[in-house]
Write a structure and sequence with these properties.
Elements lengths: L1 E7 L2 E7 L3 H9 L3 H16 L7 H18 L7 H6 L6 H31 L1
Antiparallel strand pairs: 1-2
Helix pairs in contact: 1-3, 2-3
C-alpha cells in the first residue's frame, strides 16, 4: 500500500493506492479501473504534447480515480463524489493527474516485484 499527499488548491489531499483500489472502483462506479487508467494515461500523454483539452469522459474517469484513491486514504471524506469535488476550487487536471498516475504505477511495480519474489521463494 502506498500513500501520497497532493496539494489541490489550498487543501492537502491524501491518496492511497493498493490492491483494494480495483475492487472499490468496480463496486462504486461499475467500471474497470485498469481500462479506465489505460485510457486516461494515453489521453494525458497525447494532451501534454498538444494544447488540447480532455474529453468529458476522460475528466470523469480522472475524478472517479482521484475520489476512490482519496476515499481509500481517508474514510472521513463524503460518500458522494459530487460532495467531495464541491470542496475544491477549480484546479488543473495537469497538476494532479501525474501524481495519481505515479502513485498507481508505483503500486503496480510493488505488486509485480512482490509476486516475483514470492514465486521465486516457492520454487526454491
Amino acid at each position: 500500500m502506498l500513500e501520497k499527499t497532493v496539494k489541490i488548491g489550498d487543501k492537502e489531499v491524501k491518496f492511497r493506492s493498493s490492491a483494494t483500489i480495483p475492487r472499490l472502483y468496480r463496486i462504486k462506479f461499475k467500471r474497470d479501473i485498469f481500462k479506465d487508467l489505460s485510457r486516461l494515461e494515453a489521453s494525458y500523454s497525447k494532451k501534454k504534447n498538444e494544447d488540447g483539452s480532455f474529453a468529458i469522459e476522460d475528466l470523469e474517469i480522472f475524478e472517479n480515480v482521484a475520489y476512490i484513491m482519496a476515499y481509500h486514504a481517508d474514510h472521513s471524506i463524503p460518500d458522494n463524489i459530487d460532495d467531495w469535488l464541491d470542496q475544491f476550487e477549480m484546479f488543473s487536471i495537469y497538476e494532479v493527474l501525474p501524481e495519481i498516475l505515479e502513485l498507481w504505477g508505483s503500486n503496480l511495480v510493488t505488486d509485480v516485484a512482490s509476486k516475483k519474489n514470492s514465486s521465486a521463494a516457492a520454487v526454491k
